[in-house]
Specification:
867 residues; alpha+beta; 10-stranded mixed sheet; 41% helix; binds adenosine-5'-diphosphate; binds magnesium ion; cell division; ATP binding; Kif23_Arf-bd
Length: 867
């Protein structure tokens, strides 16, 4: 039956979900209940109709210094102890009821510690009905005349609503009637004294602007969330008084519109306030029984009463509900009586109850966390995940916070001192909740049918019944009805009284008249049929016209919905991008600032670098200047010192030579004295080396010191002089080298071993000594000496001179010659070069200690020997 309806209407998202960017904060109201006893200490003061002030009770003030002074909390409205249930309803719940009637969802919950008046506010008591019975009453007062027959709307078990056809609905109604023992009409029924007189008739109120071209049905569910388990309080389970079955918990599911609902939860269709409240009371009783049986504390559970209002437009002729699931609108109002918000059990909690207490607090804590995260996300533009799923209560109402719908909270407070600390926490949470914003619900799209269908249909029906009644009335012609008029339009009947048996006029006349009438009737029927057919075709045409228009409208509406959605998406995207761009701008700003700082740093460093470089440059040039100066100083002082040294050396040399000469002179004189017999006539004179030593053929350079001291005091003749006799000692080992300078000794006695005999005849001695020099050449040394007669009659040689002769490479001779071109005295010896011997070797006589450079290959060392 339902499937049939399903087949007809393909599933598609109802267009109502076009969300709104407008947001409203959660409405938080505060209700202060009267103190239990007049003389109790009060710690709350209502200081205006939006603000209350808490002050710490005396005991606490003494204990904590300054922490608990007066604190003020502001709400949308504060209701003092004298506030009536009606006044509270007017402000808090009435707008929500108006919303539900206009297809918008609402959530209302009471929050506070146990005993603060939550249940009193939500449910109330006889004579003091709370928000729940009042809401129900207002709904029924508003939709009363427009309610659909029972079972026209049928929940689809997926949080949606279907429209049943009339036959199915009728069958369901008959089934219900046969099953229930309850009298069909609630007015005749006995009312439970427990919930009688919840609302007095004079308090009844009604919503404005109810769409009377729609048909309505109210469904209620009642659940309890205890220890984070969901229980259906309206579930019909056979009660076993001996062994009661523990109630089965329900799970939460998400419907195709992403709304959360309790899967398999009983939804009872109710047609009046009384019926609805009776259902509520039934659930309440069940709850009480379960709590007693399972030893639970009702203050620790959350109770949720859900009022669902299904509405669908009437069809085109305003007679029945339109058989289109997509046109069904379901809105709901959730009334939640939360568990006591106290942190610890007020009664002695033991064993399993302690665990429960933890869970209850956990669910309220989750509620607080969710609100906190929502608030943070909204205020700081963050996108933190809201932990709705952490508890059943928050998970069930996730859509209200995430999606759309009004959310209101009544914070109940008991001004007694004992509750003070808990109340503080309640107030803080309540104030924070006000900062959360929830999307404002959007208006329901209008259905495509012309307005006023219900009224027209009503009027038509009334007219019809009236006419039918009229038709069934007397035909006496007293009232000028249509029928009478019609009858009068026929030709009048002739008198039909038969005068006698032979009267053959009356009957034929009557027959004729009747035939005439019959003909007229026939004609009229034909005319009528013609007109009716015409009218029918016109109507059909109109109908098809209307249908196509309707289709067109439907199509357009669909498109509009899509466009709306697109627009919304784009708006969201824009919002997101704006947020992102703001974020990026902020980042850029920061980066800019950082860059500036770095640039500043860079500039200063550059500056420093430059100044350092300049300094370095300056120091370098300074250093160079210094270096140059030092160099100058060094060379100056070096030169000075060199000169000084030379000067000193020369002076010293001179001095030393003079000393030497003096000594020599003394020695000569001494010798002269010793050898006075032999050298009596000799005049001591300064020997001249040049004269002595440089024979014409010799290439010896003159001594750089022109005044060398004499080695011997004796006068010596030059080599070339014929008066001297030489012992020419040439050992046998000597190599006879042709090119080697051979001393030219004319009267020499040649020996190859020292001989006393030869020495006694001569006064000069020369030893030709050969050795291999370091450069591999044979070096010949002429070691010269003077022969003295010793006192003992022997001979002694005193060596006076060494001449070194070197075999020269003739190729290298030119170089050598050049190098010896100038002697230490700078005089070139022209004559020497003509002699072959001299060309082969050069002897240089040097004074002792002379420091001449390597330009002098041949050295003559004047050796003095002590006799
Ligand atoms: P809660 O549900 O928060 O635990 P209740 O609603 O059960 O508290 O209230 C505890 C008691 O206080 C009840 O007896 C109730 O009648 C009473 N009470 C609460 N609020 C009020 C009020 N505003 N006026 C009068 N009595 C109240
Ligand atoms: Mg309560």
């Amino acid at each position: 039956m339902i499937r049939q309806a399903k087949g007809k209407t393909p599933r598609r998202l109802p267009p109502k979900k076009a969300s709104n960017s407008q947001k409203d904060p959660v409405g938080v109201y505060c209700r202060v209940r009267p103190l239990g006893a007049e003389d109790e200490e009060c710690c709350i003061e209502v200081i205006s109709n939006t603000t209350i002030q808490l002050h710490a009770p005396d005991g606490l003030k003494a204990n904590r210094n300054g922490e608990f002074k007066e604190t003020q909390y502001s709400f949308k409205k504060v209701f003092g102890i004298k506030t009536t249930q009606g006044e509270l309803f007017e402000d808090v719940a009435k707008p929500l009821v108006e919303d539900i009637i206009h297809c918008k969802n609402g959530l209302l919950f009471t929050y506070g510690v146990t005993g603060s008046g939550k249940t009193h506010t939500m449910t109330g008591s006889p004579g003091q009905g709370g928000l729940l019975p009042r809401s129900l009453d207002m709904i029924f007062n508003s939709i009363g005349p427009y309610q659909a027959k029972r079972y026209v709307f049928k929940p689809d078990d997926k949080n949606g609503m279907e429209v049943q056809n009339q036959v199915d609905a009728l069958l369901d109604r008959q089934k219900r009637d046969s099953q229930t023992t309850v009298p069909k009409t609630p007015t005749t029924r006995r009312i439970d004294p427990e919930f009688a007189d919840m609302i007095s008739p004079e308090e009844a109120c009604k919503a404005d602007g109810v769409d009377e071209d729609s048909s309505y049905s109210v469904f209620v569910s009642y659940i309890e969330i205890y220890n984070n388990y969901i229980y259906d309080l309206l579930e019909e389970t056979p009660i076993d008084p001996i062994k009661p079955k523990p109630p089965q918990s329900k799970i939460l599911r998400e419907d195709q519109n992403h709304n959360m609902y309790v899967a398999g939860c009983t939804e009872v269709e109710v047609k009046s306030t009384e019926e609805a409240f009776e259902v509520f009371w039934r659930g309440q009783k069940k709850r009480r029984i379960a709590n007693t049986q399972l030893n639970r504390e009702s203050s620790r559970s959350h109770s949720v009463f859900i009022i669902k209002l299904a509405q669908a437009p009437l069809d085109a002729d305003g007679d029945n509900v339109l058989q289109d699931k997509n046109q069904v609108n379901v809105s709901q109002l959730c009334l939640v009586d939360l568990a006591g918000s106290e942190r610890t059990s007020r009664t002695r909690a033991e064993g399993s109850r302690l665990r429960e207490a933890g869970n209850i607090n956990q669910s309220l804590m989750t509620l607080r966390t969710c609100i906190e995260v929502l608030r943070e996300n909204q205020m700081c533009g963050t996108n933190k995940m809201v932990p709705y799923r952490d508890s059943k209560v928050t998970h069930l109402f996730k859509n209200y916070f995430d999606g759309e719908g009004k959310v209101r909270m009544v914070v109940c407070v008991n001004p007694k001192a004992d509750d003070y600390e808990e109340t503080l926490l309640v107030m803080r949470f309540a104030e924070m909740t006000q900062e959360v914003e929830v999307a404002r619900p959007v208006d329901r799209p209008i259905c495509g049918f012309a307005a006023g269908r219900r009224q027209r249909n009503q009027a038509f029906k009334e007219e019809l019944t009236r006419r039918l009644e009229e038709r069934g009335g007397p035909l006496d012609g007293e009232s000028p009805t249509v029928l009478n008029q019609l009858l009068q339009s026929f030709p009048p009947l002739p008198p039909c009284e038969i005068s006698g048996p032979n009267d053959d006029v009356t009957l034929p006349r009557l027959i004729e008249a009747l035939e005439k009438r019959h003909k007229i009737r026939q004609m009229m029927i034909e005319e009528y049929n013609k007109t009716a057919n015409m009218l029918k075709s016109v109507l059909q045409e109109q109908d098809s016209n209307l249908l196509s228009k309707e289709n067109f409208i439907q199509e357009q509406r669909g498109k509009l919905g899509e466009k709306d959605k697109m627009l919304q998406n784009q708006k969201n995207e824009i919002d997101r991008l704006e947020k992102k761009s703001k974020m990026l701008e902020y980042k850029i700003d920061i980066l800019q600032k950082t860059t500036n700082i770095y640039e500043e740093d860079k500039r200063s460093l550059q500056h420093e670098l430059e100044s350092r470089e300049q300094r370095l440059q300056r120091e370098m040039s300074e250093k160079r200047r210094m270096e140059a100066r030092m160099q100058g100083i060094v060379t100056d002082s070096k030169l000075k010192w060199e000169k000084e040294c030379e000067r000193r050396v020369n002076a010293k040399q001179l001095e030393m030579q003079n000393k030497l000469w003096v000594k020599d002179e003394k020695l000569k004189q001494l010798k002269a004295i010793v050898t006075e017999g032999k050298t009596e006539n000799r005049q001591p004179q300064r020997p001249s080396r040049e004269k002595d030593k440089v024979p014409a053929k010799r290439s010896a350079s003159p001594s750089p010191v022109p005044t060398g001291p004499p080695v011997r005091p004796l006068h010596r003749r030059s080599h070339s002089a014929g008066g001297e006799r030489w012992v020419d000692h040439k050992p046998n080992t000597n190599v006879d080298l042709d090119t080697v300078l051979q001393p030219n000794l004319p009267n020499a006695i040649k020996v190859n071993a020292p001989s006393e005999k030869a020495l006694s005849k001569c006064d000069k001695y020369v030893l030709t000594h050969q050795e291999v020099a370091s450069d591999g050449e044979i070096q010949t040394k002429l070691i010269k000496g003077e022969v003295f007669k010793t006192r003992g009659g022997g001979q002694a040689v005193q060596f006076t001179d060494i001449e070194t002769l070197k075999q020269e490479n003739p190729v290298a001779a030119s170089r050598k010659r050049r190098s010896s071109e100038t002697g230490p005295d700078g005089e070139p010896k022209e004559g020497d070069w003509t002699d072959v011997e001299t060309r082969c070797s050069v002897a240089v006589e040097m004074r002792a200690g002379s420091n001449l450079g390597p330009g002098y290959q041949h050295h003559g060392y004047p050796k003095r020997r002590k006799p």
